[in-house]
Prior knowledge:
Elements: E1 2-5, E2 10-13, H1 14-31, H2 36-45, H3 50-75, H4 80-106, H5 110-141, E3 162-165, E4 170-173, H6 175-191, H7 196-206, H8 211-236, H9 242-265, H10 268-291, H11 304-307
Amino acid sequence: MQVYLPIAEVSVNGLLLLGIGWVVGILSGMFGVGGGFLITPLLFFIGVPPAVAVATGANQIVASSVSGLMAHLKRKTVDFRMGLILLAGGLIGAALGVQLFSALKKIGQVDLLVTLFYVAFLGIIGTLMLIESLNAIRRSRNPNLSRPKRKRHTWVHALPMKVKFRSSGLYISLIPPLVIGAAVGVLSAIMGVGGGFIMVPAMIYLLGMPTKVVVGTSLFQIIFVTGFTTLMHAATNYSVDIVLAVLLLVGGVIGAQIGTQIGVKLKAEQLRVALALLVLGMCLKLALDLFIRPDELYNITINKAALG
């Protein structure tokens, strides 16, 4: 069942797109991730242009994040003051990222930039996840090994412009949350990800936030930043494909329910190792594609925006 994607300007098997959404939905349900850093490279592999994959992949993150945020609102595990500061930085970062994305698209370098970003970040994140997961398995098998203690007070707490965050029990500077939010906003615009895989560790280990409010606060910021990024890409780069977005969403909603059931039956340490290996595998595939000679050495495209 071939489906023509009008913005991507390619024909792709519709069942394959549903399958990708379904698989990423399962992984999202199993591992508790938005799936943006998984679904975008998978779209690369089936021939969707990186510019369209990045802009459209954000829709999947918005949908899954809204569902997750609702659950956290019921449990009152969202720090809205921290979320708003992260959001302010995220919107600034996303606006800058979209402008950079647009400039690189005009000179024909956006595909290479996106791929290089994914190779770098997937390699770093996958390696760190694998090391942490293996250490967790060692600790579970040997109870005598102590878990490393997280410092509550670091250099971050000595910065000026301090504000009290009652839900998180913190009294810290506005500067680190703004910088973290801006960095995640840039990544969202360039890579089509929510940035939770970077934001959550930063909130825990850099800001010192309690784990119980980290995920909900992160989701609050991600929803608005990815939504803003999608609108900016649609208005600036005309790269959001609604047909692709709908097919991925349908598959993702179904897969997430299955993944949640699977995740309950497996150990957390085993899940993290599996996810780390998956991330490293995708990193290796993208890196190899940079060096393998393509079947078509030349690709002639028409810049619709330039033609008006």
